[in-house]
Amino acid sequence: MAYKTDIEIAREANKLPIKEIGEKLGIAFENLVPYGHDKAKVNQDFISSVQDRENGKLILVTAINPTPAGEGKTTTTVGLGDGLNRIGKKAAVCIREASLGPNFGMKGGAAGGGMAQIVPMEDMNLHFTGDFHAITSAHNLLSAMIDNHIYWGNELEIDERRVTWRRVLDMNDRALRDVVTSLGGVANGFPRQTGFDITVASEVMAILCLSKDLADLEARLGDMIVAYRRDRSPIYCRDIKADGAMTVLLKDAMQPNLVQTLENNPAFVHGGPFANIAHGCNSVIATTTALKLADYVVTEAGFGADLGAEKFMNIKCRKAGLAPDCVVLVATVRAMKMNGGVAKADLGAENVDAVKAGCPNLGRHIGNLKQFGVPVVVAINHFVTDTEAEIQAVKDFVKSQGSEAILSRHWELGSEGSAELATRVAQIADSGASQFAPLYPDEMPLFQKIERVAKSIYHADEVLADGKIRSQLKEWEDAGFGNLPVCMAKTQYSFTTDPNRRGAPTGHSVPIREVRLSAGAGFVVVICGEIMTMPGLPRVPASETIRLNEEGLIEGLF
User: Is the pTM here over 0.70, yes or no?
Assistant: First the structure.
């Protein structure tokens, strides 16, 4: 049977005017800033007016380590939100915005799939409401002002060798990882080596996603450390006097975006830090606003639970005072078979033994999540090639881990296929069973926090870091930054730093290549192994097949 593509399904959606979606959450039209007929921003005055309301229940959707077989975390997030509404609950979905880098590279978009999508899919996966462009512009304005300050006399005595602020671009472009700027003579400034990161790795992105309002945003921007003097004293963004202008550029981007699912249920799509580099969660302001407007809020954390969920718990929840009432861990039979050693080309054939061999990866994630004191439900995202014996093998394994697995057919059937999952998740969220606590206390030394994550979540034997890195962490502690959480930048494909090691490996080490202080965002970025903060395009990028057809419609987005 031939199935329609995601973009074909999305294009046929029977969308409601965004005014009607706002009304479902009690948002009057005058409190929306429309971007066309099907998307809008929610203004800050309205957000401020609902802060005295009680919060709804918070449900986190995460997943096993991603495989080429596909897991469907965002699809499950959307399907669960639709399922909750189907069973009579007032629910909203909160996800991240899509980056152009993966869209034109290998990963694709971030709007769900099949009958569990958020629309307008094409807008969301391209320029949307311009938030990422605003973040890119604000970030690079600061870069320009730093170089300009040095050019016009360097009153702050910046050591040009210790400018830590790199430029950003929302595109995968490996050629920009390391560059030399200001070549061409005196008029162009002082040449220095620097580089580009992808916009979703920008500290400005992280700050926008962790700020509660514009005043908090401006204060955090001012706190960013951008360079050092020769005596190693820090230069802050506010010293460059860029924080005010950056806030102006981010004024509209700070407002959450409201759109809808295929079933016309409300969805907030706002912010998009990478989970293998940054903290991988949608904005705090979108999540906290949704919690004031809906009885159940379904949100997601990026990539596998060892990255996205860990950062959701240890960074986002810690900073925003949030606590999940239930966690849904997404897995597929196909991914279990890949973890069990089956090649992608052979996934269609029944192989119960391979499913069983691959389940330890799922079990590792279940155990990790339980360390945070939260109840865990496994959602088996259904593929049409799954057999009853394979599905039962996953259910039996999950039961042996002290949890439960529920088959969800939202991709094929929408909310009808996710109603059972939604019913059970709502029961658990309402039960008050969650006893959430972060993995480590604020006062723990930075290197011990890194070790706690590496040993408790990655199940590594040790963390490898040379004396320079350890000294840098100690300097930051002495400067008053020791209470910050750590944000691990690591490959998403494995618990180790080797992307080819699937399953649940033990006996490995976590090498630390670099540490970066994000003083404005409020965490220390720990770069592990060979992870890149500016990804490259694959051998055959998706952009080669993205085009406009004869009717002027987009083809190739997925």
Answer: yes
Q: Which of 258, 219, 259, 255 is nearest to 237 (CA)?
A: 219
DSSP alpha helix (H) spans, 104-242: 121-124, 131-151, 203-210, 214-223, 237-240
Q: Is 165 a catalytic residue?
A: no
The answer to whether residues 313 and 279 touch, using CB atoms and an 8 Å cutoff, is no
Among residues 39, 96, 319, 490, the one annotated as catalytic is 96
Instruction: Retrieve residue 437's tokens.
Output: 């606590």
Q: Among residues of the chain, what percentage have pLDDT more than 70?
A: 99
158 and 145 in contact (C-beta within 8 Å)?
no
- Gyration radius of the chain's alpha carbons: 23
DSSP 281: B
Cα separation of the two ends of the chain: 20
DSSP code of residue 530: T
- Could you confirm whether 411 is annotated as catalytic? yes
115-150: pLDDT as tens digits: 999 999 889 889 999 999 999 999 999 999 999 999
Write down the pLDDT at residue 2.
65
Calculate the average pLDDT of the chain.
Answer: 94
In whole angstroms, give the CA distance from residue 124 to residue 38.
11
- Catalytic residue, chosen from 13, 116, 275, 460, is 275
Kindly name the residue from 62, 74, 75, 289 that is annotated as catalytic: 75
Active site residue 96: yes
Residue in the structure block whose two tokens are 């009717």: 551
> Which amino acid, one-letter code, is at 265?
N
**Where does residue 430 rank: exposed (0-12), middle (13-18), buried (19+ CB within 10 A)?**
middle
Name 259's bridge partners: 267
| CA 367 – CA 453 distance, rounded (Å) | 14
User: For the range 343-347, what are the long-range contacts, defined as Cβ-Cβ under 8 Å and sequence gap of 24 or more?
Assistant: 344/68, 344/69, 347/69, 347/385
Q: Give the span between the Cα atoms of 119 and 82, in whole angstroms.
A: 13
User: Is residue 196 within 8 Å of residue 233, measured between CB atoms?
Assistant: no
